Structure prediction request, 86 residues.
Amino acid sequence: MKTITIHPVGKVFSPRKDLMDDYWGGVVSEIRIDPEQFTAEAVSELESFSHLEIVFFMDRVPREKIQRGARHPRNRMDWPKVGIFA
Prediction:
């Protein structure tokens, strides 16, 4: 498989500090574009679009805890296992 190198264009700031994978509905986060790489013009008229596609790297999960197969959503054993991409 080919290796892809990515370089961040900004950073996400969130008031949440825990690593729970649930209850994100009311959380408002902020994406700050790196001013060393981009001017304010880089986001000019962004608010006029209906959608944004954000690609992010989840860097706070320790490698040994990354799920690579199926799991019970929200760690609820009463729910059936589904693939991690489901």
User: Anything to note?
Assistant: The two ends are 23 Å apart (CA to CA).
